[in-house]
From TrEMBL:
Belongs to the carbohydrate kinase PfkB family. It comes from the Bacteria. InterPro entries: Carboh/pur_kinase_PfkB_CS, PfkB_dom, Ribo/fructo_kinase, Ribokinase-like, Tagatose/fructose_Pkinase. Residues 24-307 form the Carbohydrate kinase PfkB domain. GO terms for cellular component: cytosol. The keyword Kinase applies. NCBIfam families: 1-PFK (TIGR03168). Its EC number is 2.7.1.56. The keyword Transport does not apply. Keywords: ATP-binding, Kinase, Nucleotide-binding, Transferase. This is 1-phosphofructokinase. One of its GO terms (molecular function) is ATP binding. It comes from Brachybacterium nesterenkovii.
Length: 319
């Protein structure tokens, strides 16, 4: 089973403007949607839609609008009780193809609420499960939460992946090799946070086909004990580095970019689907890129269905 933990879930509200976004100006909304969100929720939606047994775990009150919408989303889930409300993240889409994100920090969780979430995760995860720890940490969590959970999950025989950024990411890396997960899913900026490199420059280099700096940075993480690194590179594609080797898969040019929100989570879902199906590393990479590329042509944080993501392993090349 694929189990995702979303420590800081959200309601993702996406509004589309009819005119360019101008600071200080008055704008009119032409389209407005709200979906359940949070990186782990998005991943579980993608894997569940592909028919892979999945469970999404998150902290939320039973009467919260987030929980109500999650019941309608078509994924098995488990929420642990909290007193506060799930945060709302706002994505503003404006011409010409601009995406502006405004994220709430989330309600602070008590020590008891955090303990209940950890207990729920560890009670459900075990030998043979693939567990993905995704997203930011809500206020109240210790900074080394992911490092502690990686160790606890590995003791239970679970495969563990992590997708996070900023302080939780650097705290996790500081605990390598003891807390090194089986998979880390950074984007170029997050890879830069780990290696001291300029993330924007890495992504620009990937767009020019200069992949050596990214591959070297990913391999440096493997030397620290990491199992594998799936580095998403925006419109350029993605790179996978593991003990088996390193590969790059270019992203097909989309007919139209509607929303880039959730594209990285979709790529993670594609990778996990391939992993659950026993695909080899290049095929998993191809599926990740297919899912991420399909996501940008969908509104809001919509996660692709299998029929919308067409993997082509022939595009993957070794590095």
């Amino acid at each position: 089973m694929i189990i995702t933990l979303t420590a800081n879930p959200s309601l993702d509200r996406t509004v589309r403007l009819g005119t360019p976004l101008v600071p200080g100006g008055v704008h009119r909304i032409v389209e407005d949607t709200t979906q359940v969100g949070g990186k782990g929720i998005n991943v579980a939606l993608g894997t569940a839609r592909a028919g892979v047994p999945s469970l999404a775990i998150a902290p939320a009150a039973a009467a919260d609008r987030f929980t109500v919408l999650l019941q309608e989303a078509g994924v098995d889930f488990l929420t642990t009780p909290v007193a506060g409300a799930v945060r709302t993240n706002i994505t503003v889409l404006s011409p010409p193809d601009e995406t502006t994100k405004i994220n709430e920090p989330g309600t602070e969780l008590s020590a008891e609420e955090i303990a209940a979430l950890e207990t729920a995760l560890l009670e459900h995860a075990g030998e043979g499960d693939h567990v993905m720890l995704s997203g930011s940490l809500a206020p109240g969590f210790p900074g080394d939460e992911y490092a502690r959970l990686v160790r606890a999950l590995r003791e239970r025989g679970a495969w563990v992946g992590v997708d996070t950024s900023d302080a939780p990411l650097t705290a996790l890396a500081a605990a390598f090799p003891a807390a090194a997960p089986d998979l880390l899913k950074p984007n170029a900026e997050e890879l830069g946070q780990l290696t001291g490199l300029d993330g924007a420059a890495l992504e620009e280099a990937a767009g020019r086909g200069e992949l050596a700096p990214i591959a070297d940075a990913a391999r440096a993480l493997l030397d620290q004990g990491l199992g594998s690194a799936l580095v998403t590179l925006g419109g350029a594609g993605a790179l996978l580095a593991s003990a088996e080797g390193s590969w790059f898969a270019p992203a097909p040019a989309p007919e139209r970019v509607i929303s880039t929100v959730g594209a990285g989570d979709s790529a993670t879902a594609g990778y996990l689907i391939g992993l659950a199906r026993g695909e080899d590393a290049p095929s998993r990479l191809a599926r990740a890129v297919a899912y991420g590329s399909a996501a940008v042509a969908l509104p809001g944080t919509t996660i692709p269905r299998p029929d919308q993501a067409h993997a082509d392993p022939s595009t993957v090349r070794p590095l």
